[in-house]
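Minutes, project check-in
Item: structure for the 124-residue chain
Input as provided by the requester:
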Amino acid sequence: MRRFQVGVPMWRHEEAEVIAVEYRVWVSPEQLRPLEGVRYDQVPIRGLPPDQEPAPAGPRWGWRVVPLLDNRRRTLGQVVHVHDCTEAEGGRDADLDEALDALRRPGGQACQECAAAEALLPLQ
């Protein structure tokens, strides 16, 4: 299956400064559409060797729910993360409804390191 890796420039706030970051995602040709009036003949396209092709996409989960444990490994609550957050070790995949349910439970909170709080809290 032919796929393209697309980089999207974004900015995030870290303490008192704004930092430029790039979010990269694999997309299929069906998910891409050219922008009207934009020329693409100078855009570099590099193919991956067959052994480096990305794995087929699995279920599309947007969130991870990770238990918040005390030092005795007792559950104090749960933290909802954007799926690819570096703080989202362990836990389980969740769709939007499951992520919102996790936030509504006692001890539920959204990660402040990724965009989970910004994206989910207005939906509660």
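Outcome recorded: Strands lie at 4-14, 17-27, 63-69, 75-82, 92-94, 108-110.
No further action items on this chain.
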